[in-house]
Fold this sequence. Notes:
The chain has six helices and nine strands. The chain is α+β, with helices and mostly antiparallel strands. Helix 1 (18-24) packs across helix 5, helix 2 (36-52) crosses helix 5 (118-149) and helix 4 (104-114) runs antiparallel to helix 5. It is 36% helix and 19% strand. Strand 2 (56-66) and strand 3 form a beta hairpin. It has one domain: NADH Oxidase (3-Layer(aba) Sandwich), CATH 3.40.109.40. Strands 1, 2, 3, 4, 5, 6 and 9 form a seven-stranded antiparallel beta sheet that branches.
Amino acid sequence: MRIGLDGQWTDLEVRIELSEALRYLGFRARRSPLTPEVLAVCRQMCELAEQLVRPAGIGFEYPVVCSEQQISIGEHLHISGARTRRRLGRISRAYLFAVTIGSAVEDQANYLFEQGEYTKGAVLDAIGSVAVESLAEQVNQALRRRAGQLGLSAGERISPGYGDWPLEAQHDLFPLTQGERIGISLNKSGLLVPRKSITALIGIDADGCGQVENKCCCCASVNCPYRD
């Protein structure tokens, strides 16, 4: 049974949580209290970001073939990493999607850096990351709700470059999302353009998908400053 959410997402809303942006910047409430001046900059950049973002998303569902050694989606996308396969479980279908907030936020952040406004530039850049993450999370939650209505299970999203799924896999994943239809491109290094864009995979199955409450537990970067 198909989920039935193929195509462009037209109802995505950017949700910016200031606390999450501060986490991206390395602030911890107890260790790094905010000064009133920095807090004012953060609020100013949030307001600016809300004017600049242009949310867009697109995704498609594909059949999956699972073997003992890898998970295959389409002809070219193969996942062999043990951590990633364990996280996905023995899924029967996968939803591959791309989201972006456009290029205006990163362009403005770069301009601020060029003008020597380093605090504003860093804050705006972090807010852009939070904004696009909020879009990806909306797709994930909507897919899980839809799957539940159909008696299916949808797992947590995963992306190339995390855990043991190499960034190089982006070259095989991206074409399946049709992200170019919403203005995203992929460079030779496997990085998305605009930079505030995300591609991801969500596993779907009737018997339950691999579930991980803490995404960081599947990542080998134990010293990452963003680790939960």
